[in-house]
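not sure who needs this but someone in the group chat was asking about Nitric oxide synthase oxygenase from Deinococcus caeni so here u go. i didnt clean anything up, its just raw.
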Amino acid sequence: MAASVPQPNQTPQAGALAEALEFLHLYHTETSRPGLRQRQAEAYRGHLPLSTDELTFGARVAWRNSTRCVGRLPWQTLRVNDLRHVTDHDGVFTHLLAHLRGALNGGRILPTMSVFGPGVRIHNDQLIRYAGYRQPDGRVIGDPRNADLTDHLRRLGWAGGPGTRFDVLPLAIEAGGQARLFDLPADAAHEVHITHPTCPAIGELGLRWHALPVISNLTLEVAGESFQVAPFNGWYLQTEIAARNLSDEGRYDQLPAVAAALGLETTSRRSLWVDRALLELNVAVLHSFDQAGVRIADHHAVTRQFQHFETLEARAGRPVQGRWSWLVPPMAPATTPLWDRRYDDREVRPNFTPQRPAWREARPGVCPFHP
Ligand code: ARG
């Protein structure tokens, strides 16, 4: 690609131009669409609004380039809602609801992205998140990972939910410098109750998780343009829920409870009760999503699909970048084909870049105490 790009001066503008030219080359080469020279000439002349087709292609390639994602095989199936004209609170919320319902698709989850216009921000790092309520003794009811977000939403005026471990947080949508809160209706935040195929006591723990992971704190970088509000989802891999969210000591910390449900002796870790509890919680999450008819991957299948993705990319003459520590699953990693692989972790564009959480930003106009 680099050969097609003129060597620009190192100004931000020149960097954006170089990226735009490179992207147009990639787009026209891979899609065989005509008109590359004309589009590049337009890029040279200044502002270059991407067509919906270019934006869609760019978003798909950003997924293809995501070094941390082991589920990249279906990158070409990403559906992109081009909502760059939507810049008001109600419009954004309405389209987010449509995104959540359309992506769930009755359980046959469709990878989906919605790209909104300038001046919009979503403060939540995922569209569906459980509250983490800080207690006076320092403990957290709910998801400790979301305690800062929960505090932030409280400062923005959220009255708080019923106080369970699984209260779905409202969305903070910012437009024109003003943040407003929106409650998600239950059907837009579909959840799966966790039960175990043979151990009813695990089902009695009252665990659940939401069906859709919708990342909303990554900026989509395409053709030298940055789209700050481009929430996107795939479907879950069971280890994300069972081996991290519900198990990590700094999250729901449920392995002792699962071990108790299994009747395991937990006095010494040397009995491997942690490992047994972890395994059965993974079994339970897969079983529950399957029973509920909600699509979910398992680490054996997804790592083999990743190998297939690598084969297809090699055939297309494209190198695959990856971050080994993210690609390898946190369950039985050495039983998967990725264990003895090495990956180049370079980040190439189009791609996604992280954003600072809204509550760490000093931005005028959005502080509820000084409106
Ligand atoms: N690990 C995150 C979570 O547990 C979700 C990241 C995206 N995952 C995905 N399968 N698309 O919520």
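also Residues 71, 213, 215, 234, 236-237, 240, 245 surround arginine (CB under 6 Å). if thats useful
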